[in-house]
Protein: Tetratricopeptide repeat protein
Organism: Halochromatium salexigens
Amino acid sequence: MESAWSTCLALGEQPQLEGSVQGRDSFLAAHHLAVLHEQMGRVEQARQYQQLARALREGQAQI
């Protein structure tokens, strides 16, 4: 799962593609990585992905 969500972040948003869902390759991927790391007890990584998700959602960060 970590690899898949990391790949989504690396690819970034692709709004020109048919079936594209806003956020799937940005803030939603970062959010899911935060949840994954939190459940694995990786508190610092979870916090970093939470911050990234928030910044991406607000348009304040790019990957």
Remarks:
- Residues 2-12+19-57 form one domain.
- The longest helix spans residues 43-57.
